[in-house]
Every structure is written in structure tokens, then in C-alpha cells.
Amino acid sequence: MDRRDFLFLLSLSSIAGATGCSGRSASSRPAELLPQTTPSAGFVADVELVLTAAPDEVPVLPGRSTRVWRFVGRLVKGPADTLQTIPGSYLGPVIRLRRGQRVRVRIANQLPESSVVHWHGLDVPERADGHPRLAIDHGREYIVEFEVTNRAGTYWYHPHPHMRTGAQVYQGLAGLLIVRDAEEDALALPSGDAELLCVLQDRRFDAQNQLVFHGGNMMEMMNGFLGDRVLVNGRPQPTTEVDAAWHRVRLLNASNARIYELAWTNDLQMTVIGGDGGLLEHPLEQQVLTLAPGQRADLLLDLTALAAGTEVHLDSQAFAEADAGVVGMGGMRGGGMGDRSSLPNGAPLRVMTLRTRARRGPAFRLPERLSSFDETWSPRADAKIRSVPLSFQRMMWFLDGRTFAMDDVAPEETVAGGSTQLWEFVNLTRPMGMQAAHPIHMHGRQFRVVARTGGSATNALRAGIVDAGWRDTVLVLPGETVRVQVTFTRHPGLYLYHCHILEHEDMGMMRNFQVT
Ligand code: C2O
Ligand code: CU
Ligand code: CU
Predict the structure, then answer these.
(1) 441 CB within 6 A, ligand 1
(2) From atom 3 of ligand 1, which residue's Cα is the shortest distance away?
(3) What confidence tens digit (pLDDT) does each residue in 82-120 have?
(4) How many CA within 13 A on the CB side of residue 498?
(5) Nearest ligand to residue 259 Cα
(6) Residue 219 exposed, middle or buried by CB count within 10 Å (0-12, 13-18, 19+)
(7) Coil, strand, or helix at residue 382?
(8) DSSP string for residues in 324-344
């Protein structure tokens, strides 16, 4: 260990001592809650699943298969198409639900450590939300029950255990959760083979095809862990044969820390029809699309004019590494600090390829109006404003000047269920390049972005950010202030908000809010 590593570790251990799990005030401690272990008598489920998290082995690269941790699903009750396994992938099954369904999931933990499952983007009761204090040990099971109240959209599920979210997601624990509803059905969007589900993740492999993770490397924790290969649904740069037809492409960035700046080749339009929380009011034409960890995008793609055998690619375009932020420390980032990814944030990369067949698809016309859901929303300038600084101090990332403690809630983090507030995330930059773009995620309800100010005009990621529609994860670039309007869930309880760079989250860039 050289002197600089030593200083990092030293400062970190002193912080851990100062802000560890004891940093809570008894007055703000919510009542103890235990995982649910028996089904509720009064809850009649339309859909019943068993989801088991366990070690497994899957082929990812040519040659030896890769040891992973993964979710395996089993349908106990409900429509036969509720679970869709992605062949050959380490990802969990795609869970397809409809708005209004009542769902019971039995979660079995066969991992060598404790875990808990979070339904990212869904508005569910406290006991189902996957708070780390509800994690269960190896060999145990628990039950969650919720009604799908979210509108049609692309959601996902992943573990959320204390300080281990990054490691568990990286090992393979994640899956898509797709909600449909009548409003979306009426649009007759491309479906079946014409609906492509694409989960973007980056990974690093050793010579035996096994996953490599940061192993506590301080720089990689502070910057977020980056792989050197991009996988789509657990496959490196896949090529998919498609009809020369309209397609719907649902994207999820389930990477620990990588930000993508996406664009199609062949001058194809980037038509965005939805975000984290379902359809936008109108389609949006984008040159590029910025997708940060945790975020989803729903795109339409018109391949009808392409001759059979044409290849189109989804690429992530080059941007300056500093646009995503980097803990620079006056140039010490490069040397001596351990294995750095050969693919830094901003490196141009090919995500996937589509190759057209001769077959054409059914006629489709892009509707001008996608959704009327926006009509239920209006900006509320009179709402209470809360400023939440994002900062880097004493070698740690802070959220509102604090770090996570299991059941700690500050007075300003106590909110009334169903009330509306404006939360303003202020990304403070520091001299010497200690800054990062933080994708800030709130549990519970989807929110609206009402203002984005500040930051650098030359940040290339800015052009690809879509703030329209309903979101649960918003990227706040260095120097920016992003104001969101959120109406909190009506379910009382303890919920989380945090940075979705999983290393930042695990280092404590996460806080509770208490819904009363
Ligand atoms: Cu996708 Cu609290 O996280
Ligand atoms: Cu979430
Ligand atoms: Cu962060």
C-alpha cells in the first residue's frame, strides 16, 4: 500500500467511526418492523410468485461459464405469461404485471449472505419496499404483498442490503418488471418480437471468465465501479435479427456506475416515448439519450425503410470523462491506485446490433399523443422547497450533509403521506476535480423534474438528458441544481432516497425519509 492509499483508508475509518450505524437520535427512530413471514389472510392475490436468489453458473463469454448470483422465478398463480425467462442470461425473469393486480411474492435467500429485494419505481407498502433493515439471512424466506398501482411502464427489481447492493447487483441479481395498463394497450405499440428488452450493464472478467469487482479499492468505490465490457441482457454486444418493422425498445441501465450517451447509427431517429414512470405525453425526438444507472427509457424505432441484411447499432458516444465527474485529487487518479477500467466513463462503445430480415412488420403510425396522464399533474410553485446538497467531504459522498444510518431520519426528512414538496438536489463541486454526476433516486412515487439550472454549458451529457414525464431517478450533473416535485406515497413508513451509483449508495450516499 502506498502512502496515498493509506491516507484514504485512514480517513475512511475515522469517518466510519463518526457516522456509523449509531448516528441516530432516539426521538426520530421509527417503530421496529420485521419481515413478513406468513401470507396475510385478507390479501387475495391475483399473481403469486416465488423468487429465489441463489448462486449459479452461466455462459457469458466463449469458453468457461461464469459464476454468478441470480434470481430464478416460479409462477404459483396468475397469467401464464407473467414470468419470462431470458434464455442463457444471468438476469432474473422479466416479471409482467398489469395495473390493478394484487401480487404476492415469496422471496427465498439462498445466497451466502443476507439480502432483500426492492421493486424499483413501484409504489408499494413499507414492508414490501426492500429497506435494508428488512434483509433476511441465508436460508430464510419472506413474503411481500402489494397491489400494482403504477401505470404502464418499465420498472425493475434488485437487492438492497446494507452496504452490499453494488456487490449483489454486480454478481447478477437484477430483473425487469413490466407493467401494462388499458391506456397503453389502446396505442397498440409494437409488441411480441417487435418489443426489445435491453438491460445494459458493464462487467470486468478475469482470464478464467470470472467476474472481477473492486475488492475495496478506494478510488473505484469513490468513482463507482466500471467494467471494461458492456453486456446487454448478460451478453456481450449481441446481434439480434429483427423484421424491417417498427420496434419498441425498452432500455434499463442496470450498471453499477456507468453513464451511457446513446444514439443509433444509420441516422435513425431516437424517438423517446417513455421514461422511468411510463409513457410521455408526446413522443420526443432526441439526437442522443443520456441513461444513468437506475434509469429506463422507452424508444420507438422505425426500421421499415431498411433493406434486408442492414445492420444498425446502438452506440454510446464519446464524452469527456470529467462530464460524468471523477474524483481526481490533482492527478493521482491514474497511477498506483489499483486496477482501473480500461473503459472509463465517456469511452465510445458499441452496445448492441440489430440486423434486418426480409420480413416486414405490420403497419404502424406513431401517435402524436401517447398519454393523458400528464393532465393529472400540475406544477405547484406554492409547495414547500427543501434543498438537498450533494457533496464530497472527508473522502465520502454526502446527501444533505449526512450519510446513511439504518433508521435515522432528520426532521426535514419527515413528510406527510400524499403531500407534495419540491426537493432541490444541489450538486456542489469542489476544487481539484472532486465531483461526480449523481443519479438521485427516490423510493415510493414517481416525481416530475420542474427545473434544471447551473452546471457547465460544455457538459456533453446535458444534451441527452430527458426530463419530461415521470421519473424516479434523475441525473444531477456537476454544478447543477435539479428541482423535482414529488407527491409522497400514501403508504406510511420508512423509505429511501439515494444516489444510484451503487458504490456511492453503499458508501452511505443514502438517507431515509419517514412518511407519516
Ligand atoms: Cu434501484 Cu433504492 O434503488
Ligand atoms: Cu428504488
Ligand atoms: Cu453518486
Answers:
(1) yes
(2) 120
(3) 999 998 899 999 999 999 999 999 999 999 999 999 999
(4) 29
(5) 3
(6) buried
(7) coil
(8) SEEE-TTTTTSTTS-PPPSS-
